[in-house]
Amino acid sequence: MMLFKKDTDKVIIPTKTELDVLQVLWKHGPSTVRFVHDKLNEQKEIVQYTSTLKLMQVMKEKEMVDRDETNMKHIYSAAVEEDKIKGNLLSRFMDSMYNGSASSLMLALLDNDKTSAEELQKIKEMLNKFEKAK
Q: Which is more confidently placed, 38 or 5?
């Protein structure tokens, strides 16, 4: 029985390493620490299993992940929505780098050499869709 309602509106900003763990869980679904650890080691420099385990335990305390303890192997799953976390990170980035201006951020993205013609076309289609919706 819960005595207090969980604060569902709190803003969660994961660290880079926590975000790496969340991305594995979002992509692959509920997973063991070993699986997450192995995927992280494929992506970057080798880290110790115990470091991954401790990180995921801390993330559980922060309510970023859930842990299913019904089996011998504990299964972790993301407790936060991918879109919500990405939105929080984007808002924070836009506030700190572009003074909260979405148009300044978009102009910087469009002016970036990494933006392909295909991506520009998708952006145009999205803008047209938003324009028609208003």
A: 38
- The answer to whether 56 and 33 are in contact (CB under 8 A) is yes
What are the sequence ranges of the domains in the chain? 10-100, 102-134
pLDDT per position as a tens digit, 73-102? 899 999 999 999 999 999 999 999 999 999
**Could you give the 3-state DSSP secondary structure of residue 102?**
helix
User: In what side-by-side order are the strands of the sheet with 75-78?
Assistant: 31-32, 75-78, 65-68
Class of domain 10-100: mainly alpha
| 30 CA to centre of own chain | 15
Please state, in angstroms and rounded to a whole number, the distance separating the CA atoms of residues 61 and 94.
Answer: 28
